[in-house]
Amino acid sequence: MFKKVIFGSLLISSFNSLANVSLDPNFTLMQERAGLKLFEQGKYQEAFEKLSELAAWGYKDSQYVLAFLFFKGQHVEQSTLIGMGWLAMAAESGIEDWVNLFDKLYSAASKPEKLRIDKIIEVYTAKYGMQVQRVTCSKTQKPPSKKIVIACVKGDYFVHDYAIDLNEQTLSL
Questions:
Q1: In principle, which of 43, 146, 155, 168 could form an S-S bond with 134, CB 3.0–4.6 Å?
Q2: How far is residue 110 from each of residues 42, 80, 91, measured CA to CA in Å?
Q3: In whole angstroms, what is the distance from residue 149 CA to residue 139 CA?
């Protein structure tokens, strides 16, 4: 009997924790837009607060901005390694400029740096990648222009919730 009670309470608490990270797509879109605007205004702390959670949930624009916050050390400890991890996650989207930037920076890295970058990409893909976070990207035409853009959406509104690394000392590579 005791085992059944424990299992039942664990099962209920598991469902409750999933419910706590369910997402309203309109809320997340507004949060991401607000974070991007704050970044453009140079309000890096506020941008980080809005975008870091979304980046961890697989939102590609948020991941791209996080890469630059780490590359430049804006509100966070500067880290090219963590920045490359986030840029790789953003580049999963297939956005040509992001892929080209990643390729350029990666090719300029030394062999030991590439090994560390490869490891962080492996770790980040398992946590924040498109597959695990159920994000899909596709090319769409943005009306009224005929410009082709890549739009990424979350396939469901439940997330695998992982804390993000704030400095290289906390990495377990």
A1: 155
A2: 31, 13, 21
A3: 6
